[in-house]
UniProtKB/TrEMBL annotation, chains A, B:
InterPro entries: ACOX_C_alpha1 (IPR055060), Acyl-CoA_ox_N (IPR029320), Acyl-CoA_Oxase/DH_mid-dom_sf (IPR046373), Acyl-CoA_oxidase (IPR012258), Acyl-CoA_oxidase_C (IPR002655), AcylCo_DH-like_C (IPR036250), AcylCoA_DH/ox_N_sf (IPR037069), AcylCoA_DH/oxidase_NM_dom_sf (IPR009100). This is Acyl-coenzyme A oxidase. Coiled coil: none annotated. Residues 509-692 form the Acyl-CoA oxidase C-terminal domain. The keyword Lipid metabolism applies. GO terms for biological process: fatty acid beta-oxidation using acyl-CoA oxidase; lipid homeostasis. Residues 1-14 have a biased composition (Polar residues). Pathway: Lipid metabolism; peroxisomal fatty acid beta-oxidation. Its cofactor is FAD. The active site is at residue 461.
Length: 701, 701
């Protein structure tokens, strides 16, 4: 039976229907020696060890029972519509797709998800797409993620009344044209111009040089009808700096670019290939003066400029929303990678010479050490993002009342979390990929796409190095101020805490961990400040010279925030979840403080005693043993459908090896070769055959 | 002029010829404000600052003046033949290629490179391909990289006389079928069987289960005529373990798989898509008994088995060659990524609010800190690989004389360097990618392919976690032995060194660094050994419990080896290069020891005093300033042709932004859209048009 199964003719696996798991033996993964459990049985056994109910945790992650149901329904509907609901059918994305086909597939998915939201009145796909990448991974997604929020932020009431219904009803598709070839993070360096022509009451949008070409905006290439273009506003020869303008870029009749506009795609990227990040070149394109987005700044017919004195603060506050989305989404993308790696680790067995039966690789220390500490980081990101988002909502309310006092604080938190969370998620996802060994290198493992997608978040919407700089500037400003900001109060008091008295189990107490993290942050912030003060040169030079120390201090401040947010989330959780969440909280921070495999620990080893560090490492081992049975449940809780991961390694049933063969046989290259007697025709005729022939005669063997 | 340039009609950029840089303005990258230097001028200025002659260094890297000339000639010839020699023409690999087209492109390149080697009698492409990936990145490459070395290692004289000429003359194409779906690194777990049928004097090769399917071997899918298959040899019902057999898998007449063999491709991978990593299923396939590779083991007609008592040692020794190649190549791939990032950093300018003129991003501390320390690591890998390879050659000579004494040592060094070098190169290449900001995310930056390619080396030919385990076992065995092995002698003596007396400039002395690294390794090895000894359970359990401490100790031992190899290489270098190489040597190891951004430093902060660490960090700043002018020359020295990198960011001339637009306009998706009035026809007709129409009527704006 086993033999028949593997030797099954390919024809039988050639369609979704015939690859129904029922039609093949359930014992496919049985091994001839010593291994009696199939992969699905190993999976079930690993799942059943959980000490808690993962669906309870799902409610916390997704935001309540109702949100879970809404999300499940939406995913089920769109997966049916996209034809990705059969886990034995090769997902379309692993077909033979080239650049153009990938974009068409993105358009197909975009239309289904956007329509589902409109038809069923939900915003499930406003922030993420059907595969949990950010929603701007498909061409219509940017409208909800950025275009509409920017309209709401920057339009005056008449403009909003005109544009918002058009965008929300899908009568126009929007993009946001800020980044240029020559400038990204440094917005003040943008060079596109918008020059007022008083005679015609129009702005003239123009690209004056190659570095000024708009390059990178999502959906700009071949999908959007309108864009918000960011340009230097010039009136009577005077440069008023960066402003936002709305402009139509394509005809709604035949979709051709409007006169004077060149549009195109940027080709393949590491990920996000379902959308058309594109370029635009403007050759003196005229738009009505009233297309300057005018909530906080106006230009009258005669060219008089007026701006709200708080304009920058208000715009900046509003723009933090995009960062908030990226932070939250990075938790989900890391969790997605970990769901795949955890499930695979539960069903792949591997021996070593000294062990008679082959255990699941999950049982190896370095495997579950990396998996479980990474899982704890995914939760840390999620809870930090929830906390930061709550603070952000309060800021928006306060700003609406005219109170901008907390803007610098919220801005700093969002910058720091953006850097910390995306970097942690990107590195963690890549580590999860490596934890799947060679199989993680397969595109159809789903992991390369997740890794590449979250890696993108490290450089876009503010490159992370720049983000850290914003945090360290806040800290140095705080140090120089007459009184420390509230969130930096620990800098005065850290010498008072009795750190040296703690040992052993004391480090299981979150309050003690807070003291440890405060102590470390206070040291690093103080050291960085002293280094700055010791410099004779300009502030800019001093900051550059000590950039490493500043970044490390910024990191320590943010990691303290993350610890506090985690503690708050655990306190607020139902009591049934408190034991497992507490274990995650502790292991996550013991790892940051004492793991010899993480860069952060070097700043702890300089003040914790060897005995304290050794206690922390022993406790880590204790917590690993406690958490190991929960590994599968802790990833199940994120509630990813098989189709949304598209991973041959990570489906819920654990039937990995059989699925690899079923999907592999469905690959177009193999289907085509089978139609040709098992030969890649062009390869044989054009290259291999002639090469073999060159030796003179074919070898006779 | 500038304006005309950017507004140039796309037609003009549509062919290689018309994108001749002479036909567009040289001032393309000029900025309207304050910036008068073009990108090529910035590049030239940065290159001219070098304090040494980079061509001298090239000779060390490549292996002498003659080798440089041979390499340059070979690359020039094949780039001409492949049509990639014009840096203004979009490289074929960024065309609209799907899975099948990528493989065909790989076959095309393979034929050109292999033929060039045969026609001109060189082995330039035996280890790397035309883009500096390992040569098994193309389908014929495995023959030289693995198939021929394995024949040489495992064939008896008659077998060698038969097979070697066929392989070397290109009359057969080989692959090496070891890895199965269920087992990779744990070779003893492989399940394919080779059962002797005495009646017919044949072995029957068979795949007994799904996990036993051969999966991953390069060139197995659609390119090789023969394979060396690794299988459990069964004679009279007795399992003799893993042996190697040569078998023909495809007809040389029509290339069809031979009866009983199913072959296919694995679909897209993160990289190596020019080759056909494939799968094979054998259904009782018969091969002559004489196809058992029989240098160290024989089976007679009546089924009598005989093996050389040293068989395993001899085979293992021979197989270390593949690791040696991977280690060396990882230096080149990291250097390739750094060449791109360094050149881009020299020509991208970016301001900040407080600086009037925009400086090249290279001048920012965190940029050149990361670049220069990574450059130092590329050299560290190269010198370590040279040293290890010399030791390996000595082992082979000794083994030929029957002396296997140094096998455990060489095996340990190769395992540790494989893990350290591939991980350092993969992380470093990814960091280089991030140093290019958003542009590094573009496929045509060349960086995603390099990152993915070197990342693959972390999991193949021995997963790195397994590699570290081999090092730590050697160390623990050494600790338990009556006398320490020579390379571990420092473990006894480290307490005698006057470490606490060093400060300030002392750390510029390589001999002092050796003491520091010895001290650290001795501590970590001793700690790990004590942890193991303190455990009551089995050795396997103890090893698993303390896997983290063991890995850290292994790393410290290998980093000491790397330091020593670097010192030896500097001593052997021409005196003109000694200053710059010494600076690299020192900064590389100060970084390992004291950077707060690297995980390694935590094991130093626990015994170096704050004042010593602070001295090391100040010296790092001093060395950065010394090395900054040499950054471009230090990457130029690796001698990569523009075509071999295929990077729009990294061409030698530095003309980045102009080239981005020239290549972008040549992308097939844009060419096709232009033919259709600037519209992606199918996207508009099938998805966007209907979507916009759904709102009822089209918007009238």
């Amino acid at each position: 039976m086993r033999l028949m199964d593997v030797q099954t003719s390919h024809a039988q696996h050639n369609t979704a229907q015939s690859s129904d798991p029922q039609s093949t033996s359930a014992s496919s993964s049985a091994r001839p020696v010593a291994q009696s459990l199939t992969q699905p049985m190993l999976m079930e056994r690993a799942r059943n060890q959980a000490t808690f109910d993962s669906s309870l945790l799902t409610e916390i992650i997704v935001g309540g029972k109702e949100a879970v149901a809404r999300q499940n329904d939406a995913f089920a509907r769109i997966e049916k519509a996209l034809g990705t609901d059969d886990p034995w059918k090769l997902p379309p994305r692993y077909g033979n797709m080239d650049r153009e086909e990938m974009l068409l597939e993105g358009l197909r998915a975009a239309r289904v998800t956007v329509n589902d939201g409109m038809d069923h009145g939900h915003k499930v796909f406003y922030q993420c797409n059907h595969e949990w990448a950010l929603s701007n991974a498909n061409p219509f997604g940017l409208t909800g993620l950025l275009f509409i929020p920017m309209l709401k932020l920057q339009c005056n009431p008449e403009q909003l009344a005109h544009w918002l219904p058009l965008a929300e009803s899908g009568m126009i598709i929007g993009s946001y044209a800020q980044t240029e070839l020559g400038h990204g993070s440094f917005v003040a360096g943008l060079q596109t111009t918008a020059t007022l022509d008083k005679g015609s009451d129009e702005f003239v949008i123009h690209t004056p040089s190659i570095p000024a070409v708009k390059y990178w905006p999502g959906a700009l290439g071949y999908a959007s009808t309108h864009t918000i273009v960011i340009a230097r506003m010039i009136i009577d020869g005077k440069d008023y700096g960066i402003h936002s303008f709305i402009m139509q870029i394509r005809s709604l009749e035949d979709f051709k670019p409007l006169p004077g506009i060149e549009l195109g795609d940027m080709g393949l990227k590491m990920a996000y290939n379902g959308t058309d990040n594109g370029y635009a070149i403007f050759n003196h394109v005229r738009i009505p003066r009233t297309h300057l987005l005018s909530r906080y700044n106006t230009v009258s017919e005669n060219g008089t400029y007026h701006a709200d004195p708080l304009r920058e603060k208000l715009l900046y506050g509003g723009m933090l929303g995009a960062r908030s989305t990226i932070i939250r989404n990075s938790a989900f993308q890391l969790a997605q990678a970990l769901t795949i790696a955890t499930r695979y680790s539960a069903v792949r067995v591997q021996g070593q010479r000294s062990i008679p039966n082959e255990p699941a690789i999950m049982s190896y220390k370095l495997q579950h050490y990396r998996l479980l500490t990474l899982i704890s980081k995914a939760y840390a990101i999620l809870f930090a993002s929830m906390s930061a988002n709550a603070t952000y909502q309060k800021l928006l309310e306060a700003q609406a009342r005219g109170d901008h006092g907390s803007l610098p604080y919220v801005h700093m938190i969002m910058a720091g979390l953006k850097a910390w969370c995306t970097q942690t998620a990107a590195d963690g996802a890549e580590d999860a990929r490596k934890l799947c060994g060679g199989q993680g290198y397969l595109t159809m493992s789903g992991l390369p796409e997740i890794v590449a997608s979250v890696a993108g978040c490290c450089t876009f919407e503010g490159e992370n190095t720049v983000m850290w700089k914003q945090v360290s500037r806040y800290l140095m400003k705080g140090m120089a101020a007459p009184a420390l900001p509230l969130d930096m109060a620990y800098v005065c008091s850290y010498m008072d805490t009795p750190l040296s008295t703690y040992d052993g189990d004391a480090f299981l107490n979150p309050a003690v961990l807070v003291q440890v993290f405060e102590h470390r942050a206070a040291r690093l912030v103080t050291e960085a400040y002293e280094l700055l003060c010791s410099e004779q040169g300009s502030a800019v030079t001093a900051e550059n010279t000590h950039a490493v120390a500043l970044q490390v201090a910024a990191r320590a401040h943010i990691e303290l925030y993350i610890l506090r947010a985690f503690i708050a989330a655990v306190s607020a959780a139902p009591s049934a979840l408190q034991p497992v969440l507490t274990n995650l909280l502790i292991i996550s921070h013991l790892h940051t403080a004492s793991s010899p495999l993480t860069p952060t620990s070097s700043s702890f080893t300089s003040f914790l005693t060897p005995s304290q560090l050794s206690a922390m490492r022993s406790l880590t081992n204790v917590l690993l043993a406690r958490l190991l049975p929960d590994a599968v449940a802790l990833t199940d809780a994120w509630n990813f459908s098989d189709a949304s991961m598209g991973s041959v390694l990570g489906c819920r049933d654990g039937d990995v090896y059989k699925r690899i063969m079923v999907w592999t046989r469905q690959l177009p290259i193999n289907v085509h070769a089978r139609e040709n007697g098992g030969v890649l025709r062009e390869g044989w005729e054009e290259y291999i055959g002639p090469f073999l022939g060159e030796g003179g005669v074919r070898a006779k063997l």
